From TrEMBL:
Domain (4Fe-4S) ranges: 366-422
InterPro entries on file: 4Fe-4S_dom, 4Fe4S_Fe-S-bd, 4Fe4S_Fe_S_CS, Cytosolic_Fe-S_CAF, Fe_hydrogenase, Fe_hydrogenase_lsu_C
Source organism of this protein record: Maledivibacter halophilus
Domain of life per record: Bacteria
Name of this protein: Iron only hydrogenase large subunit, C-terminal domain
Protein backbone atom coordinates (compact mmCIF):
# COMPACT_ATOMS: atom_id res chain seq x y z
CA UNK A 1 0.00 0.00 0.00
CA UNK A 2 1.52 3.29 -1.07
CA UNK A 3 0.70 6.54 0.71
CA UNK A 4 -0.72 9.39 -1.34
CA UNK A 5 1.30 12.11 0.41
CA UNK A 6 3.50 14.18 -1.87
CA UNK A 7 5.57 17.22 -1.04
CA UNK A 8 5.37 18.50 -4.63
CA UNK A 9 2.09 20.28 -5.33
CA UNK A 10 0.43 22.30 -8.09
CA UNK A 11 -0.82 25.83 -7.56
CA UNK A 12 -3.57 25.67 -10.15
CA UNK A 13 -4.31 29.40 -10.14
CA UNK A 14 -0.74 30.12 -11.32
CA UNK A 15 -0.61 27.42 -14.00
CA UNK A 16 -0.96 28.64 -17.62
CA UNK A 17 -0.75 25.19 -19.20
CA UNK A 18 2.58 25.85 -20.94
CA UNK A 19 3.67 22.14 -20.93
CA UNK A 20 7.27 22.89 -19.85
CA UNK A 21 6.90 20.59 -16.85
CA UNK A 22 5.50 17.55 -18.66
CA UNK A 23 8.56 17.21 -20.88
CA UNK A 24 11.00 17.16 -17.95
CA UNK A 25 9.21 14.81 -15.55
CA UNK A 26 11.29 11.60 -15.30
CA UNK A 27 8.28 9.38 -14.62
CA UNK A 28 5.78 11.00 -17.01
CA UNK A 29 3.65 11.98 -14.02
CA UNK A 30 2.23 15.23 -15.43
CA UNK A 31 -0.45 15.97 -18.02
CA UNK A 32 -1.94 19.24 -19.18
CA UNK A 33 -5.71 19.09 -19.61
CA UNK A 34 -8.05 22.06 -20.03
CA UNK A 35 -5.04 24.41 -19.93
CA UNK A 36 -3.97 23.24 -16.46
CA UNK A 37 -1.30 20.77 -15.36
CA UNK A 38 -2.30 17.67 -13.42
CA UNK A 39 0.09 15.56 -11.34
CA UNK A 40 -0.56 11.81 -11.38
CA UNK A 41 0.26 11.04 -7.75
CA UNK A 42 0.99 7.34 -8.28
CA UNK A 43 3.85 8.27 -10.64
CA UNK A 44 5.33 11.27 -8.80
CA UNK A 45 8.72 10.74 -7.09
CA UNK A 46 8.93 14.28 -5.66
CA UNK A 47 12.24 14.98 -7.38
CA UNK A 48 11.24 18.62 -7.87
CA UNK A 49 12.17 18.85 -11.55
CA UNK A 50 8.79 20.41 -12.32
CA UNK A 51 9.41 23.05 -9.63
CA UNK A 52 12.75 23.79 -11.21
CA UNK A 53 11.29 24.13 -14.73
CA UNK A 54 8.08 26.05 -14.06
CA UNK A 55 8.61 29.73 -14.88
CA UNK A 56 5.18 30.61 -13.47
CA UNK A 57 5.99 29.15 -10.01
CA UNK A 58 2.88 26.98 -10.29
CA UNK A 59 4.74 24.00 -8.81
CA UNK A 60 5.77 24.16 -5.18
CA UNK A 61 6.82 21.99 -2.25
CA UNK A 62 4.95 21.51 1.01
CA UNK A 63 7.07 21.16 4.16
CA UNK A 64 6.48 21.82 7.85
CA UNK A 65 6.32 25.36 9.28
CA UNK A 66 8.87 26.60 11.78
CA UNK A 67 6.09 27.16 14.32
CA UNK A 68 5.82 23.37 14.68
CA UNK A 69 8.86 23.62 16.96
CA UNK A 70 6.42 24.68 19.69
CA UNK A 71 4.64 21.30 19.47
CA UNK A 72 7.34 19.45 21.42
CA UNK A 73 8.93 19.84 24.84
CA UNK A 74 12.44 18.99 23.62
CA UNK A 75 13.38 20.07 20.11
CA UNK A 76 16.31 18.65 18.12
CA UNK A 77 17.44 20.07 14.78
CA UNK A 78 18.97 17.65 12.27
CA UNK A 79 20.77 19.87 9.73
CA UNK A 80 21.78 18.30 6.44
CA UNK A 81 25.50 18.88 5.72
CA UNK A 82 24.49 20.88 2.64
CA UNK A 83 23.16 23.60 5.00
CA UNK A 84 26.74 24.85 5.48
CA UNK A 85 26.92 25.66 1.77
CA UNK A 86 24.03 28.13 1.87
CA UNK A 87 25.95 30.95 3.55
CA UNK A 88 29.04 33.04 2.84
CA UNK A 89 32.41 31.51 2.04
CA UNK A 90 33.89 32.51 5.38
CA UNK A 91 30.90 31.64 7.57
CA UNK A 92 31.98 29.21 10.28
CA UNK A 93 29.85 26.01 10.46
CA UNK A 94 29.77 26.32 14.25
CA UNK A 95 28.32 29.81 13.90
CA UNK A 96 25.66 28.53 11.50
CA UNK A 97 24.68 25.84 14.00
CA UNK A 98 24.52 28.41 16.82
CA UNK A 99 22.22 30.58 14.69
CA UNK A 100 20.08 27.53 13.93
CA UNK A 101 19.78 26.61 17.59
CA UNK A 102 18.81 30.18 18.48
CA UNK A 103 15.60 29.77 16.47
CA UNK A 104 14.25 27.69 19.35
CA UNK A 105 15.94 24.29 19.31
CA UNK A 106 17.28 22.66 22.46
CA UNK A 107 19.92 20.60 20.66
CA UNK A 108 21.64 20.18 17.30
CA UNK A 109 22.62 16.80 15.91
CA UNK A 110 24.37 16.96 12.54
CA UNK A 111 23.31 14.47 9.88
CA UNK A 112 26.97 14.30 8.80
CA UNK A 113 27.62 12.14 11.90
CA UNK A 114 25.17 9.54 10.62
CA UNK A 115 26.64 9.83 7.10
CA UNK A 116 29.94 8.50 8.44
CA UNK A 117 28.11 5.60 10.08
CA UNK A 118 26.39 4.75 6.79
CA UNK A 119 29.78 4.87 5.05
CA UNK A 120 31.23 2.31 7.44
CA UNK A 121 28.31 -0.07 6.98
CA UNK A 122 28.45 0.42 3.22
CA UNK A 123 32.16 -0.52 3.12
CA UNK A 124 31.35 -3.82 4.79
CA UNK A 125 28.38 -4.62 2.54
CA UNK A 126 30.25 -3.69 -0.65
CA UNK A 127 33.16 -5.93 0.38
CA UNK A 128 30.93 -8.93 1.10
CA UNK A 129 28.12 -8.62 -1.46
CA UNK A 130 27.87 -10.55 -4.72
CA UNK A 131 25.40 -8.01 -6.09
CA UNK A 132 27.06 -5.59 -8.51
CA UNK A 133 26.70 -2.75 -8.57
CA UNK A 134 25.11 -1.89 -5.25
CA UNK A 135 23.08 1.30 -5.51
CA UNK A 136 23.11 4.00 -2.85
CA UNK A 137 19.86 4.35 -0.88
CA UNK A 138 20.58 7.90 0.27
CA UNK A 139 18.55 9.76 -2.39
CA UNK A 140 14.83 9.03 -1.91
CA UNK A 141 13.92 10.39 -5.34
CA UNK A 142 16.21 7.83 -6.96
CA UNK A 143 14.84 5.01 -4.80
CA UNK A 144 11.30 5.90 -5.88
CA UNK A 145 12.45 6.19 -9.48
CA UNK A 146 13.81 2.63 -9.29
CA UNK A 147 10.52 1.43 -7.76
CA UNK A 148 8.58 2.77 -10.74
CA UNK A 149 10.89 2.54 -13.77
CA UNK A 150 13.56 -0.01 -12.80
CA UNK A 151 11.90 -2.58 -10.49
CA UNK A 152 14.39 -5.26 -11.63
CA UNK A 153 17.12 -3.29 -9.84
CA UNK A 154 15.44 -3.08 -6.43
CA UNK A 155 17.62 -5.87 -5.05
CA UNK A 156 20.67 -3.78 -5.93
CA UNK A 157 19.64 -0.99 -3.54
CA UNK A 158 21.76 -0.79 -0.42
CA UNK A 159 19.57 -2.10 2.48
CA UNK A 160 20.56 0.79 4.76
CA UNK A 161 18.56 3.72 6.10
CA UNK A 162 19.40 7.18 4.81
CA UNK A 163 21.69 9.18 7.13
CA UNK A 164 18.88 11.45 8.31
CA UNK A 165 16.90 8.48 9.65
CA UNK A 166 19.90 7.18 11.57
CA UNK A 167 20.59 10.69 12.87
CA UNK A 168 17.00 10.90 14.09
CA UNK A 169 17.29 7.54 15.86
CA UNK A 170 20.54 8.51 17.60
CA UNK A 171 19.26 11.95 18.63
CA UNK A 172 16.08 10.52 20.10
CA UNK A 173 17.92 7.83 22.07
CA UNK A 174 20.44 10.30 23.45
CA UNK A 175 17.79 12.77 24.54
CA UNK A 176 15.55 10.16 26.16
CA UNK A 177 18.44 8.70 28.15
CA UNK A 178 19.98 12.03 29.15
CA UNK A 179 16.76 13.76 30.18
CA UNK A 180 14.68 10.75 31.21
CA UNK A 181 11.73 11.90 29.12
CA UNK A 182 9.19 10.07 26.97
CA UNK A 183 9.92 9.68 23.29
CA UNK A 184 6.67 11.50 22.50
CA UNK A 185 8.06 14.64 24.15
CA UNK A 186 11.01 14.70 21.73
CA UNK A 187 10.67 16.43 18.37
CA UNK A 188 13.26 15.82 15.63
CA UNK A 189 13.36 18.38 12.82
CA UNK A 190 15.24 17.67 9.60
CA UNK A 191 16.51 20.80 7.84
CA UNK A 192 16.17 19.78 4.21
CA UNK A 193 17.17 20.99 0.73
CA UNK A 194 14.80 18.64 -1.05
CA UNK A 195 11.06 17.80 -1.44
CA UNK A 196 11.81 14.09 -1.90
CA UNK A 197 13.22 14.02 1.62
CA UNK A 198 10.07 15.67 2.95
CA UNK A 199 8.07 12.85 1.37
CA UNK A 200 10.49 10.20 2.66
CA UNK A 201 9.72 11.30 6.23
CA UNK A 202 5.94 11.46 5.74
CA UNK A 203 5.90 8.29 3.66
CA UNK A 204 9.04 6.25 4.45
CA UNK A 205 10.33 3.46 2.23
CA UNK A 206 11.78 0.39 3.93
CA UNK A 207 10.51 1.25 7.41
CA UNK A 208 7.14 1.56 9.13
CA UNK A 209 7.76 4.95 10.71
CA UNK A 210 10.35 7.68 10.30
CA UNK A 211 12.56 8.70 13.23
CA UNK A 212 12.03 12.31 12.10
CA UNK A 213 8.94 14.23 13.19
CA UNK A 214 9.05 17.29 10.96
CA UNK A 215 10.91 18.62 7.93
CA UNK A 216 11.71 22.32 7.51
CA UNK A 217 13.04 23.51 4.16
CA UNK A 218 16.21 25.50 3.62
CA UNK A 219 14.12 28.23 1.99
CA UNK A 220 11.95 28.67 5.06
CA UNK A 221 14.66 28.55 7.69
CA UNK A 222 17.39 30.46 5.83
CA UNK A 223 16.25 34.02 6.72
CA UNK A 224 15.97 33.10 10.40
CA UNK A 225 19.53 31.78 10.44
CA UNK A 226 20.83 34.85 8.59
CA UNK A 227 19.15 37.10 11.17
CA UNK A 228 20.56 35.11 14.11
CA UNK A 229 24.11 35.00 12.73
CA UNK A 230 24.54 38.59 13.91
CA UNK A 231 23.43 37.95 17.49
CA UNK A 232 23.91 34.24 18.32
CA UNK A 233 27.23 34.66 20.15
CA UNK A 234 29.89 31.95 20.23
CA UNK A 235 29.99 29.18 17.62
CA UNK A 236 28.79 25.75 18.70
CA UNK A 237 31.17 22.77 18.54
CA UNK A 238 30.50 20.89 15.33
CA UNK A 239 31.39 17.52 13.84
CA UNK A 240 34.85 17.83 12.31
CA UNK A 241 34.57 15.11 9.68
CA UNK A 242 35.45 16.20 6.17
CA UNK A 243 34.01 12.98 4.77
CA UNK A 244 30.72 13.37 6.61
CA UNK A 245 30.35 16.97 5.46
CA UNK A 246 31.36 15.92 1.94
CA UNK A 247 28.16 13.88 1.56
CA UNK A 248 26.45 17.17 0.67
CA UNK A 249 27.94 17.15 -2.83
CA UNK A 250 28.04 14.54 -5.56
CA UNK A 251 30.97 12.19 -5.03
CA UNK A 252 31.01 12.73 -1.28
CA UNK A 253 29.50 9.36 -0.44
CA UNK A 254 31.79 7.39 -2.74
CA UNK A 255 34.81 9.37 -1.58
CA UNK A 256 34.21 8.08 1.94
CA UNK A 257 34.28 4.41 0.87
CA UNK A 258 37.94 4.14 -0.08
CA UNK A 259 37.25 2.13 -3.25
CA UNK A 260 38.07 2.82 -6.89
CA UNK A 261 35.54 0.66 -8.75
CA UNK A 262 32.55 2.97 -8.35
CA UNK A 263 30.57 5.46 -10.38
CA UNK A 264 28.97 8.71 -9.23
CA UNK A 265 26.13 10.24 -11.25
CA UNK A 266 24.08 13.35 -10.51
CA UNK A 267 21.13 14.91 -12.33
CA UNK A 268 17.93 12.89 -12.86
CA UNK A 269 18.35 12.40 -16.63
CA UNK A 270 21.92 11.16 -16.18
CA UNK A 271 20.74 8.82 -13.43
CA UNK A 272 18.09 7.34 -15.74
CA UNK A 273 20.69 6.77 -18.47
CA UNK A 274 23.01 4.96 -16.05
CA UNK A 275 20.19 2.83 -14.62
CA UNK A 276 19.33 1.87 -18.21
CA UNK A 277 22.94 0.79 -18.71
CA UNK A 278 22.99 -1.17 -15.44
CA UNK A 279 19.71 -2.92 -16.23
CA UNK A 280 20.95 -3.85 -19.71
CA UNK A 281 24.28 -5.04 -18.22
CA UNK A 282 26.26 -2.52 -20.25
CA UNK A 283 28.01 -1.19 -17.14
CA UNK A 284 30.52 -3.69 -15.80
CA UNK A 285 33.38 -3.68 -13.32
CA UNK A 286 31.55 -1.40 -10.90
CA UNK A 287 30.83 -2.36 -7.30
CA UNK A 288 28.96 0.72 -6.15
CA UNK A 289 26.91 3.48 -7.76
CA UNK A 290 26.18 6.80 -6.05
CA UNK A 291 23.08 8.17 -7.78
CA UNK A 292 21.73 11.62 -6.97
CA UNK A 293 18.63 13.19 -8.47
CA UNK A 294 19.85 16.78 -8.23
CA UNK A 295 22.74 18.26 -10.20
CA UNK A 296 25.82 18.52 -7.96
CA UNK A 297 24.10 16.44 -5.29
CA UNK A 298 22.09 17.64 -2.29
CA UNK A 299 23.54 21.16 -2.60
CA UNK A 300 21.48 21.34 -5.80
CA UNK A 301 18.18 20.55 -4.10
CA UNK A 302 15.26 22.60 -5.35
CA UNK A 303 14.60 23.91 -1.81
CA UNK A 304 18.16 25.22 -1.48
CA UNK A 305 18.99 28.92 -1.77
CA UNK A 306 22.51 29.09 -3.24
CA UNK A 307 23.64 28.35 -6.79
CA UNK A 308 24.50 24.64 -6.72
CA UNK A 309 27.94 25.08 -8.26
CA UNK A 310 28.94 27.72 -5.73
CA UNK A 311 27.48 25.58 -2.94
CA UNK A 312 29.33 22.49 -4.16
CA UNK A 313 32.61 24.39 -4.14
CA UNK A 314 32.01 25.56 -0.57
CA UNK A 315 31.39 21.98 0.56
CA UNK A 316 34.52 20.84 -1.27
CA UNK A 317 36.61 23.39 0.57
CA UNK A 318 35.06 22.53 3.95
CA UNK A 319 35.52 18.84 3.31
CA UNK A 320 39.18 19.32 2.38
CA UNK A 321 39.75 21.57 5.40
CA UNK A 322 38.54 18.94 7.85
CA UNK A 323 39.56 15.84 5.91
CA UNK A 324 42.65 15.30 8.07
CA UNK A 325 40.53 14.88 11.20
CA UNK A 326 40.64 11.33 12.50
CA UNK A 327 37.29 9.60 12.80
CA UNK A 328 37.08 6.54 15.04
CA UNK A 329 34.01 4.62 13.95
CA UNK A 330 34.13 2.10 16.80
CA UNK A 331 34.20 4.81 19.45
CA UNK A 332 31.41 6.72 17.70
CA UNK A 333 29.29 3.58 17.38
CA UNK A 334 29.67 2.70 21.07
CA UNK A 335 28.86 6.26 22.10
CA UNK A 336 25.54 6.17 20.27
CA UNK A 337 24.51 2.72 21.51
CA UNK A 338 23.39 1.72 18.02
CA UNK A 339 22.40 -1.75 16.87
CA UNK A 340 22.24 -3.14 13.33
CA UNK A 341 18.46 -2.80 13.54
CA UNK A 342 18.89 0.96 13.80
CA UNK A 343 20.89 1.05 10.58
CA UNK A 344 19.39 -1.55 8.24
CA UNK A 345 16.03 -1.10 6.51
CA UNK A 346 13.22 -2.74 8.43
CA UNK A 347 11.28 -3.83 5.35
CA UNK A 348 12.10 -4.94 1.84
CA UNK A 349 11.65 -2.23 -0.76
CA UNK A 350 8.84 -3.19 -3.11
CA UNK A 351 8.28 -2.27 -6.75
CA UNK A 352 5.57 0.28 -7.43
CA UNK A 353 3.80 -1.24 -10.39
CA UNK A 354 2.09 1.13 -12.78
CA UNK A 355 -0.25 -1.04 -14.81
CA UNK A 356 -1.34 1.45 -17.44
CA UNK A 357 -4.11 -0.76 -18.83
CA UNK A 358 -5.18 -2.50 -15.62
CA UNK A 359 -4.63 -5.94 -14.12
CA UNK A 360 -6.92 -7.94 -16.40
CA UNK A 361 -4.52 -9.58 -18.85
CA UNK A 362 -6.98 -10.03 -21.75
CA UNK A 363 -8.32 -6.47 -21.51
CA UNK A 364 -4.81 -5.09 -21.12
CA UNK A 365 -3.65 -6.85 -24.31
CA UNK A 366 -6.65 -5.51 -26.23
CA UNK A 367 -5.91 -1.97 -25.03
CA UNK A 368 -2.23 -2.38 -25.87
CA UNK A 369 -3.11 -3.45 -29.40
CA UNK A 370 -5.36 -0.41 -29.79
CA UNK A 371 -2.55 1.77 -28.38
CA UNK A 372 -0.13 0.52 -31.05
CA UNK A 373 -2.66 1.34 -33.79
CA UNK A 374 -3.13 4.88 -32.45
CA UNK A 375 0.61 5.41 -31.98
CA UNK A 376 1.18 4.67 -35.68
CA UNK A 377 -1.13 7.56 -36.55
CA UNK A 378 0.76 10.04 -34.40
CA UNK A 379 3.75 12.05 -35.75
CA UNK A 380 6.32 10.79 -33.16
CA UNK A 381 7.53 14.34 -32.54
CA UNK A 382 7.02 14.15 -28.76
CA UNK A 383 6.33 17.88 -28.76
CA UNK A 384 3.99 17.82 -25.77
CA UNK A 385 1.55 20.30 -27.34
CA UNK A 386 -1.29 17.83 -26.77
CA UNK A 387 -0.72 17.87 -23.01
CA UNK A 388 0.90 14.43 -22.85
CA UNK A 389 4.70 14.17 -22.59
CA UNK A 390 5.24 11.89 -25.60
CA UNK A 391 3.27 10.44 -28.51
CA UNK A 392 3.45 7.01 -26.86
CA UNK A 393 1.88 8.39 -23.67
CA UNK A 394 -0.75 10.23 -25.72
CA UNK A 395 -1.73 6.97 -27.38
CA UNK A 396 -2.12 5.39 -23.95
CA UNK A 397 -4.15 8.39 -22.73
CA UNK A 398 -6.45 8.12 -25.77
CA UNK A 399 -7.09 4.42 -25.09
CA UNK A 400 -7.88 5.26 -21.46
CA UNK A 401 -10.32 7.97 -22.58
CA UNK A 402 -8.37 10.90 -21.16
CA UNK A 403 -7.85 12.66 -24.50
CA UNK A 404 -8.58 12.25 -28.24
CA UNK A 405 -6.68 12.28 -31.52
CA UNK A 406 -8.04 15.77 -32.17
CA UNK A 407 -5.81 17.04 -29.35
CA UNK A 408 -2.73 16.30 -31.47
CA UNK A 409 -1.84 19.69 -32.90
CA UNK A 410 0.05 18.19 -35.85
CA UNK A 411 -2.85 15.98 -36.93
CA UNK A 412 -5.33 18.79 -36.30
CA UNK A 413 -3.29 21.13 -38.53
CA UNK A 414 -3.14 18.54 -41.32
CA UNK A 415 -6.87 17.94 -41.00
CA UNK A 416 -7.55 21.68 -41.21
CA UNK A 417 -5.22 22.09 -44.21
CA UNK A 418 -6.89 19.20 -46.06
CA UNK A 419 -10.29 20.82 -45.54
CA UNK A 420 -8.96 24.15 -46.82
CA UNK A 421 -7.63 22.54 -49.99
CA UNK A 422 -11.05 21.20 -50.93
Amino acid sequence: MFSSFHSVILKEDLCIGCTNCIKRCPTEAIRVRNEKANIIESRCIDCGECIRRCQEHAKDSVSDPIDDIKSFKYKIALPAPSLYSQFGENEDPGKILAALKAIGFDEIFEVSRAADIVSEYTKKIVAESNVKPLLSSSCPAVVRLIQIRFPNLIDNILPIEAPVEIAGTIARKKAAQKLNIDDSDIGTFFISPCPAKVTSVKNPIGSKKSSVDRVISFKEIHPFIVRNLKTCGKPLPFYLSGKGIGWARSGGETNSLGISDYICVDGIENVINILDDIEDERLTGIRFAELLSCTNGCVGGVLAIENSFIARNRIRRLSEKYNSKKYNFKDEFKKYNLSDEDVYLQEKIKPKKINVFGDNFVEAMQKMSKCIEIKEQLPSLDCGACGSPTCQVMAEDIVLGHTTLDDCMVLFKKKYENRSDK
